[in-house]
Amino acid sequence: AASSMHEGAFPQVLPPCSCQFGTRFLTDPRQVFQHNAWDNVEWTDEQEATAKKKVLENSQPLPPEKQEEYDSRANEYWNGFYTIHENRFFKDRHWLFTEFPELAPQCSLNHESHPGASGAVESQQNSQDGEQSGEHAALSHTDGDFPGSSATYRILEVGCGVGNTVFPILKTNNDPGLFVYCCDFSSTAVELVKSNPEYDPGRCYAFVHDLSDVEANYPIPDGTLDVIVLIFVLSALHPKKMQASISRLARLLKPGGVMLLRDYGRYDMAQLRFKKGRCLAENFYVRGDGTQVYFFTQDELHELFTQAKLEKVQNLVDRRLQVNRGKQLTMYRVWIQCKYRQAPV
């Protein structure tokens, strides 16, 4: 699909730096259709102005009763999404270990990594976390009575979808002390994870959970997780629910534990393609299938994490120019990647 940007307006490209995403730089605009994607793209002032104008044109929010309907039926919409797509829609995110070495074996949480080449084009395959199932609600959380209690390194993925992060972690990280938790808002998605032949209850625990329900129990005690992963999931929450959700998650981290996030950035192609009648609130939209999405700035995410008393390790924008060579179209993607840490003891 075509970007809303002027196809003839080519970006400026930053020189290589230590915080780049990938290493393919467009230095000659005439070469734009030589590859499928270009890294580390910096927008011109004209492009940014065009994007702002486009967003403003489609920023009239839907009536409150319509907004409430989408919010109250979110579980139904995400279950519908996964019922339709099952696991056909998704690609495993093998770029994760370049961007987030914390997920690979034998890493140090105190090591600040610099991102490398990240690939997958993400779409709405990620739902916000899911409905409380009750299966772990009665756990008292004393030693030994929660899944993975004997593990030495614990990772939780929030909004796991059909397991496109979980299964690469389990395949790549052979640390015998590793235990991976994963949860999703959609019971359909969680059932797809559990029915995957690679699902190993000895190393993994999948459960339904609603991230925005801060009163709901997690099956793990506070202060026990080394890593929490949020890949294109926070954007599915209503903006008013984000702070409480992040603050609740932060309590699960050990001292020195990290929260890793990758999500949609302001003026990403997906935001500019929304038509009138899709806006729910400022920079918050509903897709045609009823699922919702927000587009962040770096400052907004920094505020969410620091209000949860986490320390910044990394907060970067990944601007990428993707190319449809067959149709001679250019598409500008904007993603934000963050790492924030619970203060070490």
TrEMBL record:
Signal peptide: none annotated. Residues 108-145 are annotated as: Disordered. It holds the Pfam family Methyltransf_12. Its EC number is 2.1.1.-. It catalyses: cytidine(32) in tRNA(Thr) + S-adenosyl-L-methionine = N(3)-methylcytidine(32) in tRNA(Thr) + S-adenosyl-L-homocysteine + H(+); cytidine(32) in tRNA(Arg)(CCU) + S-adenosyl-L-methionine = N(3)-methylcytidine(32) in tRNA(Arg)(CCU) + S-adenosyl-L-homocysteine + H(+). It is found in: Cytoplasm. InterPro entries: Methyltransf_12, METTL2/6/8-like, SAM-dependent_MTases_sf. One of its GO terms (molecular function) is tRNA (cytidine-3-)-methyltransferase activity. Keywords: Cytoplasm, Methyltransferase, S-adenosyl-L-methionine, Transferase, tRNA processing. Belongs to the methyltransferase superfamily. METL family. This is tRNA N(3)-cytidine methyltransferase.
